[in-house]
Write a structure and sequence with these properties.
Helix content is 47%, strand content 16%. By secondary structure, the chain is an alpha/beta fold. It binds 4-(N,N-dimethylamino)cinnamoyl-COA (DAK).
Length: 258
Amino acid sequence: MTYEMIEFTREGSVAKIRLNRPKALNALCNDMMKEVAHALAELETDDNIGCVILTGSDKAFAAGADIKEMQDNAYLDIYKNDPFEAYAGAIERFRKPIIAAVSGYALGGGCEIAMMCDFIIAADNAKFGQPEITLAVMPGIGGTQRLTKAVGKAKAMDMCLTGRMMDAEEAERAGLVSRIVPLDELQDEVMDAAKKIAAQSLPIAMMTKEAIDTSFETTLAQGIHFERRLFQSMFTTEDQKEGMLAFIEKRKPHFKNK
Ligand code: DAK
């Protein structure tokens, strides 16, 4: 596939998908989401890739779904041919670690796809919001659920009902982003984090991600049970033997993803 709305690059074992419709502030049109889904499918089966970065421009991670494309839809258009079900689901289902590097606006569907990633590192100019109510709709790809789980009921209600934006400082205080960095350091900082993740054993990183995600779906007791079984299963891997031996021998481990 030739990518026209995203830039898709690889640096060692890290891949970066950059949303690239600057004139429309990276509004998420169907073709762009299709390209993101295609790139992720490629990365899922690429054994050389251990971590993915999803990012946008300095001004906008993504200002939401493309309002101009969406405005005329009838119910059955959006029900039968739901582009977000088809394509954004690729981010939700992606099994390797994926980091959102957010600068500028992350609004509506933009905020929602950032929240689908495993964590968000934000530039100091980032602004998050779920302004759908101002268009007489509501968040539709997880905003009412993931935002509430991330920042709690009070702030989620405040943002979804007033449509106001949250700046990077507030987002970090509220737990929506893991860290804030100056805008001009964002891409390097996220690349460093991604390289650290990609240097670990991939199956172990994937299981760690799966365990944390499971905490949102289960009771505490079920989650702890699942975690324990995964932990025990790691002792079947060559990487566990290597990781612990390397510590004892005071050297760097060489993981084989086995
Ligand atoms: N869609 C289409 N075009 C957009 C856009 C968007 N979301 N956001 C910005 N643009 C376009 C503007 O129309 C403008 O285009 P031109 O007029 O130059 O042709 C260009 O980008 C620059 O925007 P502005 O001139 O407005 O730039 P400003 O710096 O003045 O303002 C802004 C930046 C981000 C505050 C403003 O652009 C803005 O408020 N944008 C809209 C934000 C928004 O409401 N986002 C939520 C969209 S609704 C679904 C589930 C979920 C969804 C959809 C379906 N299903 C389950 C099917 C999600 C819905 C949404 O995300």
